[in-house]
Amino acid sequence: MTVIPFDDRDGVIWLNGAMVPWRDAKVHVLSHGLHYGSCVFEGERVYNGAIFKLTEHSERLQDSARILGFDLPFSVAEIDDACRAVVTANSIGDGYVRPVAWRGSEMMGVSAQATRINVAIASWPWPSYFDPEALKKGIAIKTSPWRRPAPDTAPVHSKAAGLYMICTMSKHAAEDEGFHDALMLDYRGLVAEATGANIFMVKDGRLHTPTPDCFLDGITRRTVIELAKARGIETVSRAIRPEELAEAEEIFLTGSAAEVTPVGRIDDMTFTPGRISELMMEDYSALVRRPAGAVAAAAE
To answer: Which pLDDT band holds residue 300 (cuts at 50, 70, 90)?
Structure first.
């Protein structure tokens, strides 16, 4: 497989209020965000040229920054406009958008009050997050030994870059053993999420999903709950013990990147994607792939 480095591509990236050539959008090696994790980001999908739920993502980026103790130098509306401009400038029909904000290189040390807050937005074409062939029978995930931290030990409701290091470690370890992703438990040993997606299980005709008290309440998670409600399917948000997964009739993941992804295996447990998973996949696809004007209206 040919890998195209993300620092060597054609196109433009929006950086601190201006479009710059892709290869010129650089960060200094002594940036605070690199050394101390003072960085937040978003992941957004583009369908038919429109960014799904754009304003919700921009608002979360702003909230994430505030949780980490800094304010973005751009309003939500300005970030929305910049995201749209980047998609247009790069001629993205179906793809991905990555807004990111970080503390700069003006100070080097734990204290960083005088650092500049930088904001960049990039967009590129992106296919399915998981192998389409694997989606047919459901992906395989393995329980990670790493756990999501407690709310009093980390900024768990911020989409902060540093919180994803254990996700990278967990996903790599799972992939090394032939799995597609990892299941993260929380600090109590309860089911939390996958490395970049929320998790749902179907039991007795209802959806059950972990209460997001120490991880993100995903935008796609909330969207799927709304879609299920429209279908008359009840969703129960509650604490889920790992052993309960064996009782599930179906399991699927949700996320901006993962969209709605059925799970066929967790560790030694196997599952068959069923009717509710199929309905959520179909309904989500229909929602995000409305004509561009309708998607934009729904997203706002």
So the answer is: very low
